Amino acid sequence: MLRLKNMQNARHAEDPERYPRNATIAYTLDEMELESKILEAEKIGFQLKAFYHSHPNHEAYFSAEDREGATPFGEPTYPDARQIVVSVYNRTVAKIKGFSWSDEEKDFVEVPIRQT
């Protein structure tokens, strides 16, 4: 598992209209950092399996904003990577759900995930 920097506060400071929320309730990844980390991992034989993020004080669902981030040009940037959403209430994980891209539905659909 690799954590990437949350660029939300910087983006909010640059353009509060486009990025109205701060990093306590929103996440924006640095695309350059992501690409760099993926290339590093591939060089040593790893591959991207999933992205994860949390929904603090909300349910685990794949929101319209989540979809927009994963499909900036209408199709998923990483179609084989699962999207894992963690619902967190009072600093406690309440639920974890997985979502995968469906070519048939042209959307992310909920899929079973193994929780250990």
Note the main attributes of this structure:
116 residues; globular; alpha+beta
Task: Walk me through what this model shows.
The two termini are 15 Å apart. A four-stranded mixed sheet has the order 1-2-3-4, with no helix packed on it. Strand 1 (50-56), helix 3 (64-70) and strand 2 (82-89) form a beta-alpha-beta unit. The protein is α+β, with helices and mostly antiparallel strands. It has two domains: 1-46, no CATH class; 49-110, Cytidine Deaminase, domain 2, CATH 3.40.140.10. The protein contains three helices and four strands; from the N terminus they run ααβαβββ. The protein is globular and about 35 Å long. It has helices at 8-14, 31-43, 64-70, and strands at 50-56, 82-89, 92-102, 107-111.
Sum this structure up briefly.
By secondary structure, this protein is α+β, with helices and mostly antiparallel strands. Helices cover 23% and strands 27% of the residues.
Q: What is the helix/strand order?
A: HHEHEEE
Tell me the strand order in the biggest sheet. 1-2-3-4
Number of domains: 2
Query: Architecture of the largest domain, CATH level 2?
Result: 3-Layer(aba) Sandwich
SS-based structural class?
alpha+beta
N- to C-terminal distance = 15 Å
Tell me the helix content.
10-25%
For the residues shown, what is the average pLDDT?
91
How many DSSP helices? 3
Quick one: CATH class of the largest domain?
Alpha Beta
CATH overall fold name of the largest domain: Cytidine Deaminase, domain 2
The biggest beta sheet reads: 4 strands, mixed
The parts where pLDDT drops under 50 for at least 5 residues are none
Overall radius of gyration:
15 Å
- Beta-strand residue percentage: 25-35%
